[in-house]
Design goal:
The chain has 192 residues and is mainly β. 13% of the residues lie in helices and 51% in strands. The protein has helices at 2-14, 19-22, 84-91, and strands spanning 23-28, 34-41, 45-51, 55-61, 69-75, 79-80, 103-113, 118-127, 130-145, 152-163, 179-190. The chain has an 8-stranded antiparallel beta barrel with strand order 1-4-5-7-8-9-10-11.
Length: 192
């Protein structure tokens, strides 16, 4: 153990980069991020909901993206259907049950790189107190300095599907769709 600590100290003193030095932490920029949920409504239309004010972090390793990670928190009370009465129904026990389960979370467990800018991110998705694995198809859009804020920024798009009954959300089945599509556009700013 002493030898291991000595090597870490020596590498740090010599400026030798470690794996951790390659990864950077980025905080989700809620004002430039949107997370949309879509589900069939009686076959007549597709309802589109937005998860407002997302929070979380991305640990992004540009050299080894497979070592990257993401953690996102959504507030159930911030799921928005653009109508006050509809939102009240969405937030009650029939759907998101915001009073009992205020947070919806996604914590990555695996990142699979498919190409220079595409991959799959699998993680633990928790909704209504139930956790199941969910895989998202992800596209890396860009990393660089934001010309307005001058802050290091990364951008990704992602998509996936969940079955709401897997999480105990059974209201209205099968008239209201079982499959919920998830569309994500995310910007995150390097932490200070």
């Amino acid at each position: 153990m002493r030898k291991y600590l000595y090597l870490i100290t020596l590498f740090a003193a010599l400026g030798v980069p470690s794996f951790k030095a390659q990864a950077a932490t980025y905080n989700i920029d809620a004002s430039h991020t949107n997370i949309m949920l879509n589900v069939s409504h009686l076959g007549f239309s597709t309802m589109v909901l937005e998860a407002l004010k997302p929070e979380g972090q991305i640990i992004f390793d540009a050299e080894k993206p497979e070592h990257s990670a993401v953690y996102v928190v959504l507030k159930a009370a911030h799921i928005d259907g653009d109508d006050e009465k509809f939102n009240a129904h969405l937030h009650n026990a029939d759907f998101f049950n915001a009073a009992e389960f205020p947070e919806i979370t996604f914590k990555s467990t695996d990142v699979e790189v498919l190409s220079e800018n595409t991959g799959k991110v699998t993680g633990d998705f928790t909704l209504l107190g139930i956790t199941k694995p969910v895989t998202l198809d992800v596209t890396f859009n860009k990393a660089g300095k934001n010309p307005f804020s001058q802050k290091e920024t990364v951008g990704f798009t992602a998509s996936g599907t969940i079955k709401r009954s897997d999480f105990g959300m059974n209201y209205g089945l099968p008239m209201i769709g079982e499959d919920v599509g998830i569309e994500i556009n995310i910007e995150a700013v390097k932490g200070e």
